Amino acid sequence: MRSLVLLGLVGFAAQLVDGSLGMAYGVTSTTLLLAIGTNPAAASATVHLAEIGTTLASGVSHWRFGNVDWKVVGKIGVPGAIGAFAGATFLSWLSTETAAPIMSLILLTLGCYILVRFTAYGLPKNNLGKPLRKRFLAPLGLFAGFIDSTGGGGWGPVGTPALLAGGRIVPRKVIGSIDTSEFLVAIAASIGFLVGLGSENIDFAWVAVLLAGGILAAPIAAWLVRHIPPRVLGSAVGGLIILTNVRTLLRSDWIDAPSGVQTVAYIVIALLWAAAIGYSVHVYRRDRAHESVEAIEAVAVTTPREDREDTASAPTG
């Protein structure tokens, strides 16, 4: 019973992060399942079965809050489903241990770009409104879907930074579209796992508890992403990408850093991440204050002088 409650809390927290930042549900949930001894294929299958419900709830919530670009969902979701099915089918004999550090380096570079770009300059404006081409979204979806199945998570960490780096869609619609299209990925991956593994290695009680926690968190996450300023959201996503992939690299066979070194690295990254978010919040508030002053000045300029004098001389109280 205790483990089920813990799984429910993990499902809630993972979906809250995933729904507001566009990533980390699979990574968080799969990590816990592996920690208690579940084999990788069964862990990934359990998470993807739960994600059928959580991604549906998340997609509906994001749609209600206007966070979804349906053209992007169609162009990236279908190739993503194909990649996810392929990854799930071949997970039993295909290892991603060698590819994981290389992928983490690429994602770490994207994460650094996003963190610096949004923290220092805010929302990219030059490309906003320009359509994302299918020749970019289709390969991205295929690759992200494959990694998501074989790694127990990866749709968000691969798809979200790639779309954010392009600067053609506002961050909240990037996250909403990635979360919504993940529904197709979760269905395809689950079918692939059921074909490859059967159902005997999957604990459906765990699936139900993860699903319940995620469904409760989905509308809260969609509301948060609607109201978080893009600059702050970009800094938050960038820091999460950096922290996640530095962790992967430090634990890989390439580096295999001692626990003390890992702890110091995490603390340094967390401090820099907090400083970046704090700076983004400060700049956002400053810009809002300037906009308010400019709005008042604009009203004063457009208001006839006699009306301003009448207002100023009108008795108060």
TrEMBL record:
InterPro entries: TM_pro_TauE-like, TSUP/Inactive_protease-like. It is found in: Cell membrane; Membrane. Keywords: Cell membrane, Membrane, Transmembrane, Transmembrane helix. It is a multi-pass membrane protein. Pfam families: TauE. The chain crosses the membrane at residues 72-94, 100-123, 181-198, 204-225, 232-250, 262-281. GO terms for cellular component: plasma membrane. PANTHER family: MEMBRANE TRANSPORTER PROTEIN MJ0441-RELATED (PTHR43701), MEMBRANE TRANSPORTER PROTEIN YTNM-RELATED (PTHR43701:SF12). Belongs to the 4-toluene sulfonate uptake permease (TSUP) (TC 2.A.102) family. This is Probable membrane transporter protein. It comes from Thermostaphylospora chromogena.
